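Regression test attached.
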Amino acid sequence: MRGKGEVTFIGVVEDAGELARVRIFPEFCVGLQSLDRFSHIIFLYWFHLRDTKEERNVRQVIPRRHLGAPRLGVFSSRSPSRPNPIGLCVTKLVKLQDCTLQVRGLDASKGSPIVDIKPYIPRADSIPDARVPEWTSSGPST
Amino acid sequence: MRGKGEVTFIGVVEDAGELARVRIFPEFCVGLQSLDRFSHIIFLYWFHLRDTKEERNVRQVIPRRHLGAPRLGVFSSRSPSRPNPIGLCVTKLVKLQDCTLQVRGLDASKGSPIVDIKPYIPRADSIPDARVPEWTSSGPST
């Protein structure tokens, strides 16, 4: 099925950095109920600074933040320049108050729109011994 | 920043089930280069059967496949009925040949469009001891 889909942004990164603040828009806020039963949550966010035709046409990258990384397909990387500018980040939930989340480890930029939030469930999401190429061990985690 | 974003589907689930087959469209295929250096990959896919106004307006769910799950906010669940119908699934890469991937553990349906593929990197993605509520331990993993 070829085609396109539309996403509606549900919130925004108000403060980036190691401790980040995310505000969820009021009409989506009830969707956060009980989220604080989870210690970690997954963000899908929009690489809004890369949402251009050029960046979305990128098919191969050299992950420059990783020493020794070779040229590889964009789907073998976590590059923000990719056909669909969606970032994925596992974060620690520090605080949930009203419609605002404080989280640790979010690698989004200030102003990045939020596309989705999902609870992190180790049974499904944690593969401690997954095999990766050597270049992933240097530099930032993604 | 309120607004919307557009996603272009990059492939499709041709066969669902425990061992699934995913075909990536030719114009995105070079993006798969070196993906087989990773043992596990993350799929973002489109819940195409839930892409309706009603399903996208869901804000609270009771995860019925999980015994004893309470009503909770949609972002505290992995429900396919959610504001943006994007599913996330960590899978084992069994085989990559040309533009076709065989993977184990993909919970998408036959015909689900693929939105993105990302390499699974334990440094960033694996939190074995993340805390979850009791109801997540019964039924399927998500």
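Expected vs. actual: identical. The mean pLDDT of chain B is 96.
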